[in-house]
Amino acid sequence: MPFAEHYQTVGSWPEATQEVMGTTSGKYTASVAIYGTPNDPPSGELTLVAQMLSFGIAPGIRGGTVLLATADGGATWTCRSGGAHPLAAEYLPGACR
Predict the structure, then answer these.
(1) Which residue has the higher pLDDT, 1 or 78?
(2) Helix, strand, or coil (residue 84)
(3) Most CB atoms closer than 10 Å: which of 4, 58, 72, 85?
(4) What is the domain extent for residue 61?
(5) How far apart are the C-alpha atoms of 2 and 19, rounded to whole Å?
(6) Is 39 left (phi over 0), alpha (psi -120 to 50) or beta?
(7) CATH number for the domain including 36?
């Protein structure tokens, strides 16, 4: 994951996802952004929020948000429903359940 590589190389998280990701949208996602304030303190913790598209996908997923988090500099990641419009548990990707 580019975030883990950045953290291991630089010793801190990027200020914006665009610093390490070419694009933050995809087949189901409208955007991926840093959730909260990274590097405060620089403990290796980071949370990202993925915002699902609001059109062209199943109604239960539209506009939902999923949080991806690491507490160890990106060595391991967890995901869960959360953010401004938490995605219902039944629509979370299999790796998040």
Answers:
(1) 78
(2) coil
(3) 4
(4) 2-89
(5) 9
(6) left
(7) 3.30.700.10
